[in-house]
Amino acid sequence: MKQLVLAQMAGADGPSAFGPLLMMFAIFGIFYFIVMRPQQKREREKENFRSKLKKGDEVLAAGNGQACDPVAGELCDPEHVCVIQSADANGIIATCMPNVASGAGCTAAFPDQCPDDEYCQIEPSMLEGTCVPRPGVGEACGRGPFATEGSICAASTRCNGGRCREPATLGEVCSADQACLSERCRDGACVSTDSCD
Question: At 194, which helix (H) or strand (E)?
């Protein structure tokens, strides 16, 4: 008699497989609503935000020690720069860090980590260098960490033919648009912005 009662309580076919299956669906449901759905919502909001950006919009995001990505447009607040810690074929790893003092060690960053009248002089294939004064009139143009040729000069000067020079005026010799005060170089001479091509 005891065996009959126990058999009826357990069910004729033994324990039900429905219980563990129900538990698995419950765990997945909880995981979905706590982890997956909020993450999908954040991704949609981020994509929506990016799609509404226009050229010239200012985007402020991360603070000291937070991750940033200048390629994706995830920049730092105005008090920090996006310092590149490593770069390879898969992308970059960068963190928001404060600017450094004059003459101090610096790292490749967007914007430059040095004071305004200096730039981070970095050897090719390296990420670390030293803040040095921007080249002045007659000096060779400075080269940024990812540039193949020099383009950095002191304020009010322009890189023209590999040397920092005063901006060329109309009719003077130039090698690129940025060398001219008018920012228009045609056939090796600075021309007015009103000129037809």
Answer: none
Residue 83 bridge partners (DSSP): 95, 109
Q: How many CB atoms lie within 10 A of CB 16?
A: 11
pTM tops 0.90, yes or no? no
* Cis peptide, bond prior to residue 111, ω within 30 of zero: yes
Place of tokens 């706590």: 34
Q: Where are the domains of the chain?
A: 142-197
Please name every residue paired with 80 in a beta bridge, in sequence order, or none if there are none: 98
**Which residue in this structure is represented by tokens 């005060």?**
181
In the chain, % of residues over pLDDT 70: 83
Q: Cα–Cα distance between 84 and 93 in angstroms, integer?
A: 6
Spatial CB neighbours of 112, under 8 Å, sequence gap ≥ 6: 81, 106, 119, 120, 144
- Here the tokens at position 193 are 């912005």
Average pLDDT over residues 113-140: 90
- Encoded amino acid at 114, one letter: C
Say yes or no to pLDDT of 5 above 50: no
Q: Which helix (H) or strand (E) holds 73?
A: none
Burial of residue 107 (number of CB atoms within 10 Å: 0-12, 13-18, 19+): buried
Cα 39 to Cα 31: distance, rounded to the nearest angstrom: 11
